Amino acid sequence: MGGDNLGDFEQLVLLAALRLDDAAYTVAVIEEIRRHTSREPTHAAVYVALRRLEKKGLVTSELGPATAERGGRPKRFFRVAPAAVTLLRRSRDELLALWSGLEPSGS
Length: 107
Known about the structure:
Elements: H1 8-20, H2 26-36, H3 43-55, E1 59-66, E2 74-80, H4 82-99
Helix pairs in contact: 1-2, 1-3, 2-3
């Protein structure tokens, strides 16, 4: 696995792909990020992030069947590797530890 740190956008892309499970392809990841955040990621930004994550060994990909809706071209589906889940959990825990004590009490 390459790199032990994930950038903010990489985390969003990985979390969206995890939510999508077997249906994670570029357009679906974009829609998932839009649905759950205030971000408007571009197709190119998500595609580049997914390929970068693949080079790091944090996602794998495979081509699905060709579809008429895409002019006979197949979709590339991405699957999040267990190592990425470990990194995401560590990142979440570190952020929560830093936030601890900064939030106002309920009084």
